[in-house]
Amino acid sequence: MMEIKRIDTYTDHRFSQKVLDQHGCFLIEGMPCEVEILSDFEAVVRGKDRNAYPQLMEQFRFYTPHISKFYDDCGKLIREYPAVPVFNIAIGEIQPSQFFVDEEKIAAIRRFIHHPQDIIIQVMLHNGSCISLDGHTRLYEAVLNGWNTVRAVEVTADQNILGFVEEAKRRNIHSPKDMKLVSHREYEEKWNRFCAEYFQRLE
Fold it and tell me: In order of start, what are the domains of the chain with their CATH numbers?
């Protein structure tokens, strides 16, 4: 199993800015590799070690399950997965599992999010509620723009997510508009602290 590390920053001279903004940059055994989203269901993979592509694509699809076709830098199809249904959902019907939004992330996604259809998030249906598992920054950007709907794919998650939802509700966060926009430093401090303390309580 190769060591694959996802890059979470927005400044790194080893990668293109466009892919950094998309969070599609990885280090595979220390070597840079990029997965650039081209459309709702397509992406291109770039990196020296083609043997690492299968594992990289699997990991990338954990974050973006709607991407089903992957090409190399020459436009040759590398792999095609079964298509995942994408559907529209009203923002007001979405229950966040997160509390804070990072100002730095908002600035980054504004470089490639321009319309409601640019937003595809992962949601889990639970007891009649639609829980957002990721994409909270994109959801908050939709709120700021006054958009009423986004697009989503349905996935499953472990039961830990329900603890995050319970805490969100305790903080009166019942829709994306209720999340709090904070500085990058405050986001790192508050969100990372909550996650660390939450999983400590489970041990």
Answer: 4-80 (no CATH), 87-202 (3.90.1530.10)
Query: What CA–CA distance (Å, rounded) separates 167 from 93?
Result: 18
This model's pTM is above 0.70: yes
What tens-digit pLDDT sequence spans the chain (203 residues)? 789 999 988 999 999 999 999 999 999 999 999 999 999 999 999 998 899 999 999 999 999 999 999 999 999 999 999 999 999 999 999 999 999 999 999 999 999 999 999 999 999 999 888 999 999 999 999 999 999 999 999 999 888 899 999 999 999 999 999 999 999 999 999 999 999 998 888 87
Alpha-carbon torsion angle 51, 53, 55, 58, nearest 10: -160
Alpha-helical runs (H) found in the chain: 17-22, 53-63, 103-109, 136-144, 160-170, 184-202
Q: Which residues, other chains included, contact 173 with Cβ-Cβ below 8 Å and sequence gap of 6+?
A: 96, 99, 179
